[in-house]
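Hi R.,

Here are the chain sequences for the assembly we discussed:
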Amino acid sequence: MSKLLALLLVFTGAFTTGQEITVAAAADMSAALPQLVEAYTKKTGQTVKLSFGASGNLTNQIRNGAPFDVFFSADEQYPNQLISEGLASKDTLYRYAVGRLVLWVPGDSPLDLSKLGIQALLDRSVKKISIANPATAPYGRAAEAALRHFGIYDQVSSRLVLGESVSQAAQFVESGNAQAGLIALSHALAPAMKDKGRYWTVPLDAYPTLNQAAVVLSKSKQQDATRKFLDFLRSPEATSLLSSYGFSLPAEQH
Amino acid sequence: MNWEAFWLTVRLAAIVSMLLLAIGIPVAYWVTYSRWRWKFLIEAAVALPIVLPPTVLGFYVLVALGSRSPLGRWWESLTGHTLAFTFEGLVVGSLLYSLPFAVQPFAASFGAVDSSLLRASASLGQSPLQTFRRIVLPLSKAGLVTGFALSFAHTLGEFGVVLMVGGNIPGVTRTISIDIYDQVQTANYSSANQTALVLLIISFVVLSIVYGLNRRPWTVGPWR
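And here is the predicted structure of the full complex:
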């Protein structure tokens, strides 16, 4: 009987959860963050669990008591909302990166992105354009803003398909089901997509800057360990890895 | 309450359950009467969607029927677009997803028809098809309604396949379950609540019809 109980405890993870940090992270971090965590675990022995999703979805999960220690958003708005609701501590708010939006097409696409830029979306061969859902994903809002900035939103809106997160938007175009996608630069540079297509970087003035902020959640029982992990993100090792995924560093810190 | 998503979903469920009535009857007929020794393999394949996660079906519709596969290219040359992100794509996905919910009740009711009636019909010179049409089908009415209603209700509640292949396009692929998901994710709980309640009531009514039809008021139980 006690053996059975022990087995049950192992399966439910009761022996391991004590020391772990659980991270909720924006979908655009799905390639870079596992590498950062690997480096951090190797260095400190600290294990880190990762959950990815659209920042809005994760915010909603946190509101409903999801057991995360820290939240890496793809914008600043969601962390600030959590702070104002008392669910995250203001002093831990840290802009860890600036995200970039790119227009991505599969390798077999006939479109010359360097010549056409965003106008490539008006080509007849582009039947579906994948973006993240603007209701829950900062990258979706950025994509919508960029399309409006270039004055082509009304022309393309009937061809937009919405990914549940920017990862799904990337998957839609990577699999060839959409012919073009407005996705995260970090996905375009990730090993899974790097050699499968071409991209055009959407100019920064076309959409509100994606100041990606992280914040430690008030309910976390791992406050110290989580803050240490955030400190690691400020290290040269971490920032150089982030920049290899196309993230730039925020201009000013608070 | 998003009525556009609601009627879209009702239309999807109605089309799928009617197509499954047309597809399911011959499949169930074959499953019931075939004596092929490997028949169980087909039965297992038909039942697969009951146990397979909808994400697997969604993945196949996206990749195996996508623009990189021969099947997907054939569809594209026929219609000019891929299956993903279209209403037809949802119909195809839902047909697979709800197939066992039609075929199994059909086959069960066909199999329950007294075989002496079939022999009597044959001895009176009726062909197997005529026997099926005039004896088996009328006697299987409850099973046909059950299969129709279950595939309708099952399609109504479909989520995983639609999430993976739909692309959340309003009026085209944003079904009611996706709408509820969006409402919850953006913390619009009151709207999610309304829609969820409507879906709950419809599902309960449909299932009540199924169980009401199948009740046996004269059953003598051991407890009597």
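The radius of gyration of chain B is 20 Å. The CA atoms of residues 90 and 162 of chain B lie 7 Å apart.

Let me know if anything looks off.

Best,
T.
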